Amino acid sequence: MTDGSPLAVAMEEEESTAMAMEVEESPSPSIAPRDPPKIQRLEESVVNRIAAGEVIQRPVSAVKELVENSLDADSTSISVTVKDGGLKLIQVSDDGHGIRREDLPILCERHTTSKLSKYEDLFSLSSMGFRGEALASMTYVAHVTVITITKGQIHGHRVSYRDGVMEHEPKACAAVKGTQIMVENLFYNMIARRKTLQNSADDYGKIVDLLSRMAIHHNNVSFSCRKHGAVKADVHSALSSSRLDSIRSVYGVSVAKSLIKVEVSSGESSGCAFDMEGFVSNSNYVAKKTILVLFINDRLVECSALKRAVEIVYAATLPKASKPFVYMSINLPREHVDINIHPTKKEVSLLNQEIMIDMIQSEVELKLRNTNDIRTFQEQKVEYIQSTLKFSKSDTPVSPLPSGQKTPKVPVHKMVRTDSSDPAGRLHAFLQPKPHNLPDTVSSLSAVRSSIRQRRNPKETADLSSVQELLSGVDSCCHPGLLETVRNCTYVGMADDVFALVQYQTHLYLANVVNLSKELMYQQTLRRFAHFNAIQLSDPAPLSELILLALQEEDLDPENNEKDHLKERIAEMNTELLMEKVEMLEEYFSVFIDSDGNLSRLPVILDQYTPDMDRVPEFLLCLGNDVEWEDEKACFQGVSAAIGNFYAMHPPLLPNPSGDGVRFYTKTRGNVEMESVLDQDLLSDAETAWAQREWSIQHVLFPSMRLFLKPPASMASNGTFVKVASLEKLYKIFERC
Description:
coiled coil
């Protein structure tokens, strides 16, 4: 029943309509509910085969387990033979203490081990193995044969295993001291796994890499590894008293001579007790892949966090795409390590891992900074550009190609210069030498080789949310097309005082180096926030005098003295403002102003680059006038922008002495006949400043841009990049001519 109100009537109609729709839409035939599936207990053979697939993932997993068993048996010699990448045969022989005859029946049963007897033993374990799963797992996916002899026996015993049990009673046989285990037809009953492992060369390479790592750490054991039927071993290490000698014998002389020894020791007082010793490569070592050999309590493991931390330190020390070699052995209390977190034991969990990695990272960075003052470069003789331009077709040497091979043909309109390091391809190589005699310091610039050591600070940013927001803004505004251009462009030369010519693929661009350097310095200031190195000024300069000097330079009518009092007042107010902010400027930006109001220290934004000190007055005036000090985010952005503008590679204040610019350095002499002569001192200063700027643009700015700059989208439309030529379009034009 309803009360007759419109609302009640409407609700009743709506309910009846919904019920009618529900009746119409419901399916006429009813579907019987599905019974829940029955839970069954798997057969033991199925359980064991599944577990075996986790423990023995590929042939190198089996080799690792067998070699670790040999090390636990106090072996001094371990030999590995492999056939078809380990799928057909893995044979590991050692001279350890062997296996007792009475232990052979349960040798390959699951969870049978001599390493521990109760769970608490895990926390004081010194052996490599402990679960008793490896040999059992191998018997479920392969055919395993064991030959062993213990000390004092006159003969050994041979026994074969399948699915965890012996196939026959142990048979007496001739044997040498120790144990030999043969694993044949690996994954014979796992067709899918075997098909994915058909590349035997790849698996054998992994085995060689494993034994190479084992050999340099266990230098009291001799290792050898060879393919079945091969005479020469691919890994052969002899007993050595020096770990560096082991590295030399396994990885070669070129690696060993580039290594630096590192050591870190920490007590309980630091919150993380451990000892680390190892070797890291210096800046002369070049490789395409990072090699991190890490042992924790003599166990070969992987640690992605430590690897990433070390790579951050090396990212700017090494040339682009080059990777380091690192060997580390870390010892810490066994109760601080959980070794039971991975089926193959390749990873461990550490107590206070972050503290330990941070200390190791700092020590590696300190060692590199102290030893990388000298870089070795391979010099290559380059012919004069004139001889390059004047050869004829008949003079072109033709190298014979092997039979059956053809030279890869590149379309004419797609050909680009591929060797960006060749000086003959740069713009200045085509220019006539300047007639003026440059001082030795300037002429030597052309001989200086770049050794950019752009350090990425491991603690790049502070935890302030405002700084994180500014960095997020940099990332979100990044133009992906310009980013690709900046990362892969080739510097050609300076087109004028502001624009540089750069080549990207088949396109030629004019790039505004002032805008690019200003944006790069701004972004680097945010990334290095509160973690700057410092430039110490030889003569501290008073703030008030510098700001007053900047105000006088901005004055369009310097002869008018009426505004001097106003300028002094403005300089005084800005000085007082900056003196109130000295703690913040020093802590966050390494701009140090002493108690007397003297500027004595500036931050290092890019290594190997010092800003133009003539622009210090303008920088301080900008800090006083253009920064919003009350809002934290706006303040940090304003100070970073001021630093970016100060460190940007502006043209020197002295006019460019090349071409017609030399007239600015002439002066008149004599009263009767006006004779023009060059001011050699001023000219020399100008030539030095401009040559140093061009060197910095080529060897500091562009390498740093490729590493760090994230160009904002505004650069695509504000004239920072201007395309001036395209090889495809030029080819079409010349094709019509």
